[in-house]
Design brief:
Helices cover 29% and strands 17% of the residues. The chain is α/β, with parallel strands linked by helices.
């Protein structure tokens, strides 16, 4: 029996929309990362970008379980000496919830050029509106 290897030119891409209202951030990010990689397809090939486009809406209504809102921090470095910055997730979910979802999904994708191309297929919005209606996205159910 032969092993099927997908080619980047022959991959058919769909558009999915995910409503993040009331969904834990980690569960949302892992499901979205799986669809971006193409693991939901029978033609999944690890070295080919065979994933679909994903639109995430209502990120301001996503939840964090436990005491993560108070105890968890988003840390980044500016590049200057002593430039380590940190923001609590409580403040981040109030002001930049779209960035919180984006970074959570980014951390679950491969850390190479293939992962960067997969991340370009992710569209994140704070509210319920998005400007991708022309692509006719299907609703993706989170199990």
């Amino acid at each position: 029996m032969k092993t099927y290897m997908a080619k980047a030119e022959t991959v058919e891409r769909k558009w999915y929309v995910v409503d993040a209202a009331g969904v834990p951030l980690g569960r949302l990010a892992s499901r979205v990362a799986s669809v971006l990689r193409g693991k939901n397809k029978p033609t999944f090939t690890p070295n080919v970008d065979c994933g679909d486009f994903v639109i995430v809406i209502n990120t301001d209504k996503a939840v964090l379980t436990g005491k993560k809102l108070e105890n968890k921090f988003y840390r980044y470095h500016t590049g200057y000496i002593g430039g380590l910055k940190e923001i609590s997730y409580k403040k981040m979910m109030e002001e930049k919830s779209d960035l919180a979802v984006y970074e959570a999904v980014k951390g679950m994708l491969p850390k190479n050029s293939l992962g960067r191309t997969m991340l370009k297929k992710l569209k994140v919005y704070k509210g319920a509106e998005h400007n991708h209606a022309a692509q006719k996205p299907e609703e993706l159910k989170l199990d």
